[in-house]
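With this grant's support, we have settled on a layout for protein records. A representative record follows, to show the layout.
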Amino acid sequence: MKNKLIDALGFLGAVNVFVVPIVFAFGQDPLFPLPGLYFIEIALVGLVAAYSIFRRTWPLVPWLASGILLAFVVLGAWTIGFFLIPAVFAFSVAGYLSDGKPAGTLVRFAGSGILAALVQAFVMVMLINVA
């Protein structure tokens, strides 16, 4: 039962990160490079996270993916961010449920997700300032 829930959460997150950017991409007139690159990054992060969840490999990956997507949620709060919350939630819960290790591992994985969010936010802000 637990494995089916983990798989369902991985599937939900993967569908979310593919559908949301596609919907927003069709809403853009000229899709200048940064939004298009961000949409590709969102989809690839979701694909890697879903693969990791389905194959039960790399238990850190769902946490990193939820952290990266959390940066999009916060920085894109008035546009795409709100619609990525289900993926952040799904990947975080799947990462939590799939980790059968002691609490110290949970803290390390959640901390890695927060670090991934900070790094992603820094990269996004720097790219926006350069463009």
Summary: The chain has five helices and no strands. The first helix runs from residue 2 to 26. The chain has a mean pLDDT of 87.
